[in-house]
Amino acid sequence: MAVECRFYSKLADGRLKCGLCPHGCTLRDGQRGLCGSRRNAGGVMVSDVYGHPCALAVDPVEKKPLAMYMPGTWCLSMACTGCNLRCLNCQNYEISQALPHEVESYNVSPAQMVDMAIERHLPSIAYTYTEPLTYYEYIGDIATLAHERGLRNILVSAGYINPEPLEQLAPLIDAANVDLKSFSDEIYSRVNGVHLQPVLDTLLALHRADTHLEITNLLIPGINDDMAMIASMCRWLVQNGLGGCPLHFSRFFPRYRMSEARPTPKSTLFQARDIAQEAGIEHVFLGNI
């Protein structure tokens, strides 16, 4: 059942303007936002994925990746279809770039999701795999119930959201891993279909909210593996008080619309690690190697 969304407004011409993320999609009746999951249904913006996860799994928390938050524990991982990015290298494009009706899903209420975690003795629920912020209302309701029953909430996100929705969600999020795709607005626009600044704003907002924050930077050969840019990114993190946040450099493997690219040489990750440590990043981890 579709549930009414938060953060939208009605325009004079009958369209609805979404206020969840910086895209600000304006939708006529029947149209969907760029994320694919939010829709104008007769003058009401609804979420077609609320209560309909397309992926459920039990993962080690290190897979998120979170290296310094509840290590050695497992989490209930869930996702719905949809994403507000268009990454050419998407690892989960079969569900992130799909519309709700194109993928088989389950019927799971927020209360049932929390019960599922408790019955399996899992201390946390992770919103992951696609872009959780596009099913904002669903994770908000799950996360609220999870806190009431002593569970932790983990957000794995690209961080492309407007300030007000994030400010309201942040108190419910205990830990987050934000994917910082690059430190170039041009690369973000060309490879990911969004802009850099809102992601940086998200990092700062989560840090201010005392959320346990870790950052992932997937290094793609010839795209975002310029060491001068990586050094600039690391300096920005340190200068903005994020030097203590674990930074994960992750190895790229060919996928989706970048299937002809080559995997990241391991030497690239070692070089990035050295640069990050020299810049003052306290905890650097290498992934997919």
Any idea what the shape is? globular
- Tell me the quaternary state: single chain
Strand neighbour order, sheet with most strands: 7-8-9-10-11-12-13-14
Residue windows where pLDDT falls under 50 for at least 5 positions = none
Q: Which sheet architecture does the biggest sheet show?
A: 8 strands, mixed
β content, as a range? 15-25%
Whole-number radius of gyration? 19 Å
| C-alpha end-to-end distance | 42 Å
Mean pLDDT: 97
* Helical proportion, percent range: 25-40%
How many DSSP E strands?
A: 14
Report the structural category: alpha/beta
Order of helices and strands: EEEEEEEEHHEHEHEHHEHEHE
Helix count equals: 8
Any key phrases for this structure?
single chain, 8-stranded mixed sheet, 8 helices, globular, 289 residues, 21% strand, alpha/beta
Description:
This protein is 28% helix and 21% strand. Strand 10, helix 4 (163-169) and strand 11 (175-179) form a beta-alpha-beta unit. The relative contact order is 0.13. It contains eight helices and 14 strands. With 289 residues, it is α/β, with parallel strands linked by helices. An eight-stranded mixed sheet has the order 7-8-9-10-11-12-13-14. It has helices at 93-96, 110-119, 136-148, 163-169, 185-192, 197-208, 227-239, 266-279; strands at 3-4, 8-10, 16-18, 26-27, 38-40, 45-47, 55-60, 74-79, 124-127, 152-157, 175-179, 212-219, 247-251, 284-287.
